[in-house]
Amino acid sequence: MRRRVSLLAAAVLTAAFLCAPSGTAASADPVPGPAAQWRQLAVDALAKFETFDHTAIGGAPSVNGCGPGYPGVTQRVAAYAWAAQAAGILRGWHDPTTTAYLNKMLSMKNPDGGYGLPCDYDQFNDGSVNPKTTSYTVTMAGHVGQTEIAAYEAGVLPASELSALAVEVKAVPQLNNAAGSCLAYSTAAPDHANPDYCVHNVNAGAAVFLMQVQALELAPAGSGILAGYIGRRETATYNVHTGSWPYDDSGRASDDGHTAYLVASMYYLAPYLGNFIAGNLLAKTYTAAADWGVTLGLAALPSDVAGMHYGPPDRWCAGAARQIPLQQQTLATWTTPDVANVLAQAAQLFAVAAAACAPYDPPVTPTTTAPTTPPASPTPSTTAPSPSPSTEPTPSESTPPIG
């Protein structure tokens, strides 16, 4: 029996975005709330993506899917997963463009049943190059996995696809220690040969993906137990002196973008700790274009988790909304084909935030004179539940390290 997932999803399963009146106010325009602004950003980002990638209309895909260092390489599967979820929320899950992106995503499955990159890649710069048939944990759980959950709940993806992907994620080799479990960065042997190669944001995200699929009763046996051991590992790895996590067990520092993805997962694995660090991130002010998406993935967090209450319902929406001006400015600078994958991820993140935060937007009414023509009847648009964050929230990197 299908049950809707609450983990990492907005408490809203459908959200109505009301159209503005057809008339024009005499003097001042109403100020849209955060959800309306994120929805417009999502619409704009997806439209920009589609100027460079013509998959949705049966044309050529965009290139440079592995970054500027890999010219001519076809687009990565993650871009189509992001575009599919954004289109599903904005246009509906039965829209032809949504279907085209979903089909493209599914067509890029690796021989082993997982998903990865369209290029050979050395993740840890140790001289070992993973072939492009490698399946990456973050691509499966954080990118494709989140779109598959939303598509399944919308009734457009068979349960067998999602269940099979959960099997692939759970089967990733592990780098365990006394503190708990860690799923390796990829299925490639070099990426699980060194115990220092446990990448913490990827590990936590994979655990929550397994929890989500288990809530839908589609996960392989033992998924919940594994997620619990991963939660123990990540709780033990938290550094009280730095107030954060290292990127991996080599001690490399993590940036706030990767940390935000990890924290959004820890909100479910260890709620008190996740809530504390998420609040710290929201309190920061980001001004660099590269940081446009740091807090965006936190917007869809619920205020209640694991029976605990963490503030007013719109707490995360209001905190993340502080970055909207930076997001508007940054989106305007993305005008070249090499950022197509970034545009797809931005569209997904904006759309998920818009759907989650729509109930908290103030009513949009004219602030001065009434419209000169009668307003049109509002037209609700149904959105499917979209877990967030579905990806690592800093897609401005120019190379494939995407987790």
Key attributes of the depicted protein:
Glycosyltransferase; 41% helix; two-stranded antiparallel ribbon; 2 strands; mainly alpha
What does this structure look like?
The protein is mostly helical and 403 residues long. It has one domain (34-360): Glycosyltransferase. Helix content is 41%, strand content 1%. It has 12 helices and 2 strands. The chain has helices at 34-52, 77-91, 96-107, 137-153, 159-170, 200-215, 223-237, 256-269, 271-283, 315-320, 324-333, 340-357; strands at residues 304-305, 308-309. The protein has a two-stranded antiparallel ribbon. Strand 1 (304-305) and strand 2 form a beta hairpin. Helix 6 (200-215) runs antiparallel to helix 7 and helix 6 packs parallel to helix 8 (256-269). It is globular and about 60 Å long. It starts with 33 loop residues before the first helix and ends in a 46-residue tail after the last helix. 53% of the residues are buried. Mean pLDDT is 86; it is low at 9-27 and 368-402.
Short structural summary:
This protein has 403 residues and is an all-alpha fold.
